[in-house]
Amino acid sequence: MTSPPDDLTIPTTPAPALALTKSSATTTVTHVGQVVPYAITVSNTGNVTIAGIQVTDSMQAPATDSGLSALACPQTTLAVGEQMTCTVSYAASQADLDAGAIANDGDARERHRTRWEHRPPSGRLPHRPGRPAGDPRSEKDRPAHRERPARRR
Which residues pair with 42 in a beta bridge? Predict the structure, then answer.
C-alpha cells in the first residue's frame, strides 16, 4: 500500500529594491559647452531578480534636458546584489554658468511592476484553490472576467 503524495508550500517574502548613486569626474565647470560626464550606478539591493529596469536622468533648471546625451545602460535586468553603471553627459550652457551650479536628477525603477511569485525548484507553481495541484497557470494569466456566449433568439 502506498500513501497519496503530499505537497507543502512555504511562501517567500519578495522584497524588490533598487539603489542609485550618481558621480562625475568633473568637479567644476568653467566654460559654455564643457561636457560633464555622469556615471549612474544602479544596484539591486532587494532579494529578488529585477527585470525591465528603466533609468531616467534629467536636469534641474536653469539647465535643460536638451543638453543631455542619450543615456546608455548595459542591461535591464539585475540579479540580487548585482549592479550596473549607466553613462550620460551634459554640455554646460551660459545659464548654468550664470546660476553657479548644475543640478542633475536620476532615478531607476522597474518598468512594469511584477507580481513576484515563488516557483519551487520543480518549476511547478504552488497549489491554488480551485485548480489542480501543479497547474502551470499563474493568477496573472487568469482572465479578469469570463466571456459569456451570445444568447440565441
Answer: 20, 84
Q: Grid coordinates in use for 78?
A: 539585475
Total domains in the fold of the chain:
1
Half-sphere exposure in the Cβ direction for 67 (13 Å, CA): 23
The reply to whether 143 falls in a domain is no
Task: Output the domain CATH number for residue 47.
Answer: 2.60.40
pTM of the model: 0.67
| Predicted confidence (pLDDT) per residue in 53-90, tens digit | 999 988 888 888 888 899 999 999 999 999 999 999 99
Of residues 16, 72, 23, the one with CA closest to residue 49: 16
pLDDT: which is higher, 110 or 121:
110
Q: Which residue range is the domain that position 92 belongs to? A: 18-110
User: Residue 105: phi, psi to the nearest 5?
Assistant: -115, 150
